[in-house]
Write a structure and sequence with these properties.
434 Repressor (Amino-terminal Domain), about 10% strand, mainly alpha, single chain, 6 helices, about 55% helix, 2 strands, elongated, two-stranded antiparallel ribbon
């Protein structure tokens, strides 16, 4: 996967549980868990805004790009 989520890292820094964060941003535990584990294909700006507000961070703190092995070898 080329886009990696670091939501769990930011949650740990804030000592915030999945349940607490989900309640604060108005999202179900299940959907937040799917987002946190990179199992979704997209994220809304208002969701990113809520995450950044509650975790006191920037979007780049939540998501990062990592080249796939094929891309690194020049095959992608």
């Amino acid at each position: 996967m080329a886009i990696v989520t670091n939501i769990d890292v930011m949650m740990a820094k804030k000592k915030m549980s999945l349940k607490e964060l989900a309640e604060r941003i108005g999202m179900s535990n299940t959907n937040l868990s799917l987002l946190k584990n990179g199992k979704v294909h997209g994220v809304r700006y208002r969701t990113m805004e809520a995450l950044c507000r509650e975790l006191d961070c920037q979007p780049g703190d939540l998501f990062e790009y990592r080249a796939d092995e094929e891309e690194e070898r020049g095959q992608g």
